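re: ur msg from earlier - yeah i can do the zinc ion complex, just paste it... oh wait u already did. ok heres what im feeding in:
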Amino acid sequence: MPGKNLSRDEAQQRASILTVDAYRVRLDVTSAPDPAAATFRSTTTIAFRCAEPGASTFVDLLAPAVRAVTLNGRALDPAAAYDGARVHVDGLAAENVLTVEADCAYSRTGEGLHRFTDPADGETYLYTHYEPADARRVFATFEQPDLKAPFTFTVSAPAAWDVWSNAPHQAVTAEDGARTWEFAPTQPISTYLTAVVAGPYHVARDHYSRTLDDGTVLDIPLSAMCRRSLAPYFDADEILGVTKLGLDFFHERFAYPYPFGKYDQAFVPEYNIGAMENPGCVTFREEFVFRSKVTDAAYEGRANVVLHEMAHMWFGDLVTMRWWDDLWLKESFADFMGSYGLVGAGTRYQSAWVTFANQRKAWAYRQDQFPTTHPITADIRDLEDAKLNFDGITYAKGASVLKQLVAYAGAEAFFEGARRYFQRHAFGNTELADLLDILEETSGRDLESWAAAWLQTAGVNTLTPQLTADAEGRITELAVLQDGEVLRPHRIAVGLYDRDDDGALVRTARFELDVTGARTAVAEAVGLARPALVLLNDDDLTYCKIRFDEESLETLRTGLGDIKDDLARALAWSAVWNLTRDALMPARDYVALVLRFAGQEANIGVLQSLHTQAKGAVDLYADPAWRGEGGRLLADGALHELRAAAPGGDHQLAWARFLAQTANGSEHLGLVRGLLAGTARIDGLEVDQELRWSLWLALAAAGQAGEEELAGELAADNTAGGRRQHTQCLAARPTPEAKAAAWSAVIDSDELPNALVEANIAGFAVPGHRDLTALYAGPYFKLLERVWAERTIEIAMRIVGGFFPQAQVDEATLAEADGWLAGHPDAAPALRRLVLERRDDLARALRAQACDRV
Ligand SMILES: [Zn+2]
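and the outut:
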């Protein structure tokens, strides 16, 4: 097994002989504010038992230096025991105490203990992020989810700082300009769930309490933190309000008292993902603290994440998967609970399932059609596999399938199953069978074949209506045809839609039925008048792609926007996007639908995904000969809708951003410049800082923003966000020098923090700059293996995914990708997976372009 990896076999072997009783971890981060200090002192003491005395094992540790290793009072030679990734220990006793003292590195990649210095005020902030296996960058650990133990953290930090961890602190002592924070022991938890947050964070505090069934009162101190310079924008009341609704809701549904004492939520800088469910100490990306006006879709998205992480306190933290094969046991559930909770807990985001149907599922459909797709319960051989499986299958498809399970087995059986699952497996580890056993008890249904079809096979089914009518227009037959490698049982609703007196398309009939096999008749529909639209999977109960009969498709072409119900309309939008991706609808037809109906789209989240998809359709799926015209049509449409939108509303802001993304002609760019200069105004549109950067990006990409102007904007917004945006603007300029600088900044050095790596890649890869970036396709394929070997996996994934020549939609680039794959059969499987997926995107774009060619 190569250096930093850890295989499932090794983890199983280690778990078969070890039981961990306790960790004591002592960290000294007093050096953090000094940029010259690259490391901090870490001392770990692990008490553990071994079922086979005399055996050997290892602890995981990624540290620049190991100073001392002591096993059962015996000092070991660090040079001999430590190989750069593992500390090997031999001659274990039945009961052991191992102490490892190391110098660990402050991280700039968001993996381990990340250090960030705020350009706005010079303050330094730290936080940890570990999943799946980066606790070993901070202390010595048995880095696998099934070796749970209580952790006791002690952290010495600068005196002016506060420090948080999973458990509350018990004591704080001051000495020599530092303060040492002693935390209470945690409940038994997995290593990847431990956390430390430290720095001069701004804190908002609150409190939650509820009386439990046995009459005792559960008190949960709440807090929410962000960097001080973000405090003016921090709407902690809104966040804590959603938090309290969620705590009420999950206590009612799960009937298991929140087990981790207090509940802190830290919004932290340069965070790689959305959020992480560390028990009692959740971390979020700080972009959820909105510096400028955002649409309600952003608030909904944030509230969804708050509830997703909260659901993990039970699904994942209290009961944890044994190994990463069963990652879905926490992520699919948390993803489902995010939307379910938004609606059920009574938040103001009652259209959460619309968002789920339209956006979350798009992620699943895309992932599930890659050649690399996998069953929801996956085969995870090692940590690199694990890292790539935080994907559209594990989250969005899994959540979709749970939604289907609720439709199939009933909500009561589902939640009674959850309650028994927590009771039976509290503080333990589980696998698929543990959950299925319980769900079979509570539903009284045999779920083995259901699980085999839904959880243990890959791929998405397509459902197509087959409709015939007689001369009077009465339905003589309606059937649902199912396609796909594996045919599954689907509980679905079928909706029939017709125009009402106001011209809106409304549902006139609904049938709920079990679809099984290749063809299922909808008997109740026979004899009814043929409707204008047949919508399969109405109410979005199952996970599938839907198609339309010819007449329904014609109805959508002329009236998609007239569908009254938000969810039904979102499903129709999703279906026509899938038709476009599948090369069954020309990209220009999809663009025409968006231009025709997006202006009347009421759901702001759906509107924003229409913007993204329409732009993608022009950039990648349209015939190149039509691309220029398509781009102009989008920009004209954006300008038209921007002027027509209600002043000051979300839709106006969304169209303003879309104009910034599509602006190309002199009229659009002139308006962009006028908005920046204040010489042009759109009534009600506030050109705030984030919008300003979007507008600058439009000018930069068009070659109309000079370095000095961009520097001037940065001087006016010398913040973390400003630096990222400025970096992206520089990289987005259409010159060979700008592209070379962005490429080099990412590839030739590993000094850049994760956030600026991302900004450079985003700016570099402007699709319209394909002529400039074409030169880099060759070098890209040559450096893949080096990047994979030398960079941390988080950064390597961004480079491999982001620098793939995605905009070069041509046979030559496809051949180049195929050549690399054929020539590198032994490259790391995770690396091959990433390249295979990008290659598949490219092949899909070629098919779509062929469909669009007239
Ligand atoms: Zn999650």
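cool cool. Residues 27 and 155 are 5 Å apart (CA to CA). ping me if u need the other ligands too
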